[in-house]
Task: inverse folding
């Protein structure tokens, strides 16, 4: 089941005609990746503008490092051509506007300095500063769920989705009260807009306008937030272009919201369907960080894209200049050549060099923050709702494409076992 199912002809041959929007792929792509790894490890399709799909860990890692020929400049998103949405065989002719979201949408040398500008904001120390707020926020969200008296709650919408936009807003120094609007914009860009280009464009325009207004405000009234830091930064002695600052802020929302929300949702889905893992984490909360790594591996949400700048032969695959490559980090994380029993979630897995956060120069800059949010969200949920199950497995909906995760997650919470809280949000 999924939120996002454009009409496409059924897939007859996944090796030469795969479709990442196919209902089977959206619901559970793991069996498809298994077959492809055996038959054709780098698959190809003409659908949605055409692309290549590596399925083996080593191939994904190698491609992520081929930055001289596989570029991260537009189009890096997993989406159909803008003027041909809904037509899976349309040529890729509609990319009209470059994505301005550095560092993710840039190659060296721009990538190098634009990444360096944001890294301090995501250091372990900066991340630790946001931990008490995140913990109090999670408690407040559960206070609200418990106060509602409902015995079935939508853990995707009313818990997981509520956490990342507020944490990012706080980091950027923008209004946390606008978190619903931020989520709508991000879904418009990364999820619903993938098959609805006018919506995508509208959301991108509104985001840019929003951040340009925030930037003007911060120029007049600097604060201690990331926007002010970016405005104060110098590159080769010069201030950073305002459109670049707006693009980076844009990326913070787009990269930080859907991804982390999806991971928290998938983790709760797993714990609701695997009582033995839930009980083990309640008995031994110190295992949560290790479990988070395993949940990230098994339910990796993010697939990014690259575009070839030159013809390149990859293990016999004739990749042509202009071809798109889907960086299948989720599929790499299920490769049996890299992980023992890859389709099994082993919450105390010790050898776990997963690539859920990518690999190489574009490796996730926000991974410390994402890990902290996941750990705290799971810890607080287990503390306050120690007994829960999935209410209706068939009712769960999943988003796929660029970022995979549950969008409707009805969880039955045992009213008798609920633990009331005593904390409120502090800023
Ligand atoms: C569980 C949550 C997350 C996952 C799974 C995730 C995954 C990823 C992946 C796979 C990439 C690499 C993209 C590529 O190779 O093209 C990436 C890049 C990035 N992520 Fe995350 N991410 C998460 C959360 C966050 C958060 C909370 C932030 C903070 C705002 C963030 C900021 C970034 C940035 C800035 C980049 C670009 C880095 C660069 O190009 O140098 N991410 N992320």
Result:
């Amino acid at each position: 089941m999924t939120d996002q199912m454009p009409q496409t002809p059924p897939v007859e041959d996944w090796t030469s005609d795969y479709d990442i929007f196919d209902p089977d792929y959206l619901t559970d792509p793991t069996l498809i990746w298994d077959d492809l790894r055996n038959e054709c490890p780098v698959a190809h399709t003409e659908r949605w503008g055409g692309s290549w799909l590596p399925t083996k860990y080593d191939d994904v890692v190698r491609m992520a490092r081929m930055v001289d020929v596989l570029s991260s400049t537009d189009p890096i998103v997993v989406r159909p051509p803008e003027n041909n949405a809904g037509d899976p065989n349309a040529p890729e002719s509609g990319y009209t506007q470059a994505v301005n979201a550095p560092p993710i949408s840039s190659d060296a040398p721009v990538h190098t300095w634009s990444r360096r500008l944001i890294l301090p904001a995501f250091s372990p120390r900066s991340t630790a500063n946001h931990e008490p707020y995140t913990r109090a926020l999670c408690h407040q969200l559960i206070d609200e769920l418990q106060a509602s008296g409902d015995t079935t709650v939508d853990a995707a919408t009313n818990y997981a989705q509520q956490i990342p936009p507020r944490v990012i807003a706080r980091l950027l120094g923008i209004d946390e009260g606008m978190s619903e609007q931020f989520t709508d914009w991000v879904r418009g860009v990364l999820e619903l807009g993938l098959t609805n280009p006018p919506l995508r464009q509208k959301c991108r325009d509104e985001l840019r306008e929003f951040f340009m207004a925030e930037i003007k405000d911060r120029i007049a009234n600097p604060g201690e937030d990331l926007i002010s830091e970016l405005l104060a930064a110098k590159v080769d002695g010069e201030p950073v272009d305002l459109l670049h600052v707006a693009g980076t802020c844009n990326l913070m929302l787009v990269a930080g919201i859907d991804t982390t929300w999806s991971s928290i949702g998938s983790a709760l889905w797993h714990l609701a369907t695997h009582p033995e893992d839930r009980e083990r984490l309640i008995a031994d909360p110190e295992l949560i960080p290790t479990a988070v790594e395993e949940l990230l591996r098994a339910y990796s949400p993010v697939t990014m894209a690259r575009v070839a700048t030159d013809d390149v032969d990859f293990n016999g695959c004739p990749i042509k200049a202009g071809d798109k490559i889907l960086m299948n980090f989720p599929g790499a994380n299920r490769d049996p050549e890299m992980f023992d029993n890859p389709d099994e979630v082993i919450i105390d897995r010790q050898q776990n060099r997963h690539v859920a956060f990518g690999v190489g120069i574009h490796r996730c800059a926000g991974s410390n923050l994402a890990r902290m949010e996941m750990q705290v969200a799971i810890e607080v949920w287990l503390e306050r709702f120690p007994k829960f199950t999935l209410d209706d497995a068939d009712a769960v909906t999943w988003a796929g494409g660029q970022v995979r995760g549950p969008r409707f997650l009805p969880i039955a919470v045992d009213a008798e076992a609920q633990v009331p809280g005593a904390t409120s949000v502090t800023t």
In short: Residues 64, 72, 103-104, 115, 168, 251-252, 255-256, 259-260, 263, 301-302, 304, 327, 329, 356-358, 362, 364-366, 369-370 surround protoporphyrin IX containing FE (CB under 6 Å). The first strand starts at residue 42 and ends at 45. The chain has one domain: 14-417. The longest helix spans residues 197-220.
